[in-house]
Write a structure and sequence with these properties.
globular; MetI-like fold; 2 domains; about 325 residues; mainly alpha
Length: about 325
């Protein structure tokens, strides 16, 4: 019987923890909503209605029920994706979210893959060449960029490559597709989205790659002089095999842990970048809904961003179990 590295017991525990975090997020949103000044009915309902109509709507939405019943209704509605209607239109909030979510995933997924691909490769190279000018220069550059705000990088990229201030007016200012064009072939749509993705994903990459690089560099420096590396060299294996197969593979474990933290960092940056580049995702929707006091949309957008972080953290944490056969999760000691 072939043993699997993945423990069902561990997956069940991680799933239970993820569900608990989502429940805690729902509870926090409910408490924040109730903590707002004034009657929530005055915010969610049209104050121009007569008193009889307002009372009828309060009964319909359960706003006249005890607090614990309102809480249970709130949890049930969110668990069944019933977020109500937008205050600015007749559209259901879940419909608005369903349209925006894939756009955020495109930006988030692209940035995540680029950051960790570039960061891991750079960290391997810098850590393997420990103490050299390349290592020190790369470390200083990464540390500096890691402290720069996403929005500032975005503005600089727009200034250089989109506004024509430096004769490089070659990339769009924002949005996801070309303005005033509604019909695309499949190939043209993919090409146009990738063209508009360069600056927002690039701004996330310039800042975010350093996180994976710094962890990978430190981890590589710890394995450079490890006995198994010396053994691999003594066997006459090619330097690239020793570096990547024996060194990088064993040094990759801490990067997986850092990726769990980096997920929230990337999504947080995506919200800011979406606003800077007018990318029509959930982040930009959240900002506009808050400014317009469209609370049903704002709360649902915040909830989905939180769930996205929890789900990605769960998947990354489970994938962590495959990176090292020595790791045994969910087993009794």
């Amino acid at each position: 019987m072939v043993e699997t590295r993945l423990s069902f017991k561990y997956v069940a525990k991680r799933a239970a923890v993820s569900i608990f975090i989502i429940w805690a997020l729902l509870t926090l949103l409910f408490l924040l909503l109730k903590a707002m000044p004034g009657d929530i009915a005055d915010i969610l309902l049209n104050p121009q209605l007569d008193q009889e109509s307002i009372e009828a709507l309060r009964r319909r939405y359960g706003l006249n029920q005890p607090l614990w019943k309102q809480y249970l209704r709130w949890v049930f509605n969110y668990a069944t994706f019933d977020f109500g209607y937008s205050l600015n239109s007749t559209d259901k909030v879940v419909t608005i979210i369903a349209i925006r979510l894939p756009r955020t995933l495109v930006l988030f997924g692209t940035a995540f893959l680029l950051q960790y691909t570039v960061g891991i490769i750079a960290g391997i190279h810098f850590g393997w060449n420990r103490g050299t000018k390349t290592d020190k220069g790369g470390f200083l550059t990464g540390l500096t960029l890691y402290s720069v705000p996403f929005f500032w990088i975005g503005w600089m990229l727009l200034l250089v490559f989109a506004h024509g201030q430096f004769a490089f007016d070659v990339l769009p200012l924002g949005h996801m597709t070309t303005a005033f064009q509604s019909e695309f072939s499949a190939l043209n749509l993919v090409t146009d989205v990738m063209y508009h993705l360069v600056l927002p994903a690039g701004s996330l990459l310039i800042v975010g790659w350093a996180g994976a690089m710094l962890v990978m560099r430190t981890s590589m420096q710890e394995v450079v002089d490890a006995p198994y590396i010396e053994t691999a060299r003594a066997k006459g294996l090619p330097p690239s095999v020793v570096k990547y197969k024996h060194g990088a593979r064993n040094a990759l474990i801490p990067v997986a842990t850092q990726a769990i933290i980096g997920i929230a960092f990337i999504i947080d940056g995506s919200v800011i970048v979406e606003t800077v580049f007018s990318w029509p995702g959930i982040g930009a929707l959240l900002v506009s809904a808050i400014l317009e006091r469209n609370f049903p949309v704002a709360l649902a957008a915040f909830f989905f961003l939180g769930v996205l972080v929890v789900v990605m953290r769960f998947l990354t944490d489970v994938a962590y179990t495959f990176l090292d056969p020595r790791i045994k999760f969910g087993e009794s000691s």
